[in-house]
Amino acid sequence: MNCSREQGTSFGKSLLMILNAYAVLSGFVVLLRGIAAVLVIGLACRVLRSRRHAEFSPTERTESENRFYLLSLLSTWLLGLSLFSWPLLYLLLQSYVPHWPGVMCIYGVTQIGAGSRGASRFLPGLIAALQFLKPAAVFVSGVWWLLYRIQRRTQTGPLMGRILLVQLGFGVLALTDTLLEGAYLVIPKREEFLFTGCCTSDISEQSDRSSAWLEALSDGLGPTWLSVTFYLVNFALVLALWCFRGRCRRCENTPGMILVFLGAVLVAPLTAAYLVEIAAPAVLRLPYHHCLYDLIPRAPDMVFGIVLFVVGACCVGWASAVRWLANRPETKDLARSEQDWLLSAGLSCYVGAFVMTFLEVSLA
Length: 364
Hints:
Blueprint: H1 5-13, H2 21-50, H3 58-96, H4 106-110, H5 123-151, H6 160-186, H7 212-221, H8 223-250, H9 256-284, H10 295-298, H11 300-325, H12 332-363
Helix pairs in contact: 2-3, 2-6, 3-5, 5-6, 5-11, 7-8, 7-9, 8-9, 8-12, 9-11, 9-12, 11-12
């Protein structure tokens, strides 16, 4: 069924705001996250300002410590809400699919508003920003939690200043994400012209690739070389993690952490290209359908493998952050212990994702 520009316009003008269970729940979470983020930013700024004074009276020191503990509780609350809001965004977008004729999956929803003259023209950009800000906020919150975990096992609190700065950054990211998500919820869903892509009814007129750089990377290597490169590079990263774990226990100063971190960063776009260009069409049994969003309802086990890739990359990033931010004499051994289990968790996630992806594509 084709949906013309005029049909999309007339339909969109009658649709102002979609209210369903997921939209109401998302709005409630947005409200809670906004309150928590504002409180975290305010308290972090206040504690940082109080730390500028060289001398504390006993009363001022007690008040500062109480504010820090309250800030930690609020940050924990915000961390939980941020983790919950990430999958909730995709559930919300999935619930929007039936509201537009011709839209077949989440990707089609992300293109609603493209080409519109009204406020809905901001909807695709808001979705793109949210898909970046949510994992960024979760990653920064993980850095805070790890530093705070190390700080609690010390006597003098040498990481206080760095923890406060990370908490402040976490609060700013969470508040920005909350404001953008709130804007997405309240912007009228009207005057949208359905983008002809992989998840609309007509896929013959334009390319169905959801990202130009993924298409360029795939076309540059070719399907065969993209698959070979994906497996070789991921195997090399797993081997590097295994070797570095043993080396970092014996050698205090080693540049291996930088190399492992850069390897994880470089592997990420290659993995994304392989999943979009090779794995998704094979698992979905749709050779010309390059869309990861369709894996959510149709291949949840493959989605779990993608989650393992993401968690593995985050573990490597968190291990790097702990090594660089907790390099004080008092926290050096504690940081090495945290780094060890983070790298072990990252290694397990990469191996699990690697094996699961290979089996899913081979058996498809």
